Amino acid sequence: MMPYVILSAAMTLDGKIATKTGSSNISGKKDLLRVHELRKECDAIMVGIGTVIADDPRLTVHKVDAKPDDNPVRVVVDSKFRTPADARITNSDAETIIACAREYKDELIASDKYETFKKRGVKFFYSGSKRVDLKSLMSYLHEEGIDKLMLEGGSTLNFSMIKAGLIDEIRICVAPMIVGGCDSKTFFDGEGFDLMGEAVKLELTDSYQLDKDLILTYKVLK
Ligand SMILES: NC(=O)C1=CN([C@@H]2O[C@H](COP(=O)(O)OP(=O)(O)OC[C@H]3O[C@@H](n4cnc5c(N)ncnc54)[C@H](OP(=O)(O)O)[C@@H]3O)[C@@H](O)[C@H]2O)C=CC1
Ligand SMILES: Nc1nc(O)c(N)c(N[C@@H]2O[C@H](COP(=O)(O)O)[C@@H](O)[C@H]2O)n1
What we know:
The protein has 222 residues and is an alpha/beta fold. The chain has helices at residues 29-41, 49-55, 105-109, 112-119, 134-143, 155-163, and strands at 4-12, 44-48, 73-77, 96-100, 123-126, 148-151, 169-175, 202-210, 213-220. It has a nine-stranded mixed sheet with strand order 5-4-3-2-6-1-7-9-8. The longest helix is centred in the first third of the chain and has 13 residues, at 29-41. The chain is globular. Residues 8-10, 24-27, 35, 47, 51, 55, 57-60, 152-153, 173 line the site of the ligand Nc1nc(O)c(N)c(N[C@@H]2O[C@H](COP(=O)(O)O)[C@@H](O)[C@H]2O)n1.
């Protein structure tokens, strides 16, 4: 069994989730409230290490009323244990699981950072030889009681997750902005598919305007 996975993000009309310099404030105020209500409904929230390094996110429910219990478990997909020692996702606001690849396990366990994180209560999960195996991670998280997981990027992890058939629903905020730039991160990057016939197919299930933003919900067809 796997968690039900909702991919949530905000992009500009030209499909960028950050500029080439990493600036990523895209959602309007009301959209951020919507996102935090969704965080509150989820058992876990997962990002890739690229997002942790770029944004140092909190990944807690902090824009709407919430109790400490409302904070989802934070999951970071980080094969080589690059999570910075002072990353906010390792604070005591919520539980944190760092998923790493087996090849780096011995080195990781021997590091001072590992001891520091253990003292903070951070848990570790190992899967995949050189890169985290996302299917076994999802299966482990489900065993740990995670029924509903919110995936919050970034582009590389989004593509791996959708390619592996692990995303059930997509909720995207389309902001009326264009930033361009072939080096700006798009909603899905990764290695991409070669042929249009390989594209993951979606069904639009909801759409509405929230101030200037457009909110679209899609079911992923499997
Ligand atoms: N506007 C929005 O809604 C959002 C925007 N963003 C933006 O996205 C950008 C970050 O995206 P990006 O750089 O692509 O980083 P990601 O957050 O997607 O992290 C990618 C990294 O995850 C690690 N990883 C481990 N296992 C896997 C796997 N099986 N598949 C894929 N990745 C894996 C890899 O590093 P390793 O091999 O070391 O483990 C990889 O480089 C930031 O600029 C951020 O601001 C992010 C979220 C939301
Ligand atoms: N929904 C949404 N809209 C945006 O405009 C965004 N930039 C993001 N980014 C995601 O939220 C994380 C920051 O979370 P905290 O406020 O620090 O808890 C960021 O890392 C992205 O995952 N999302």
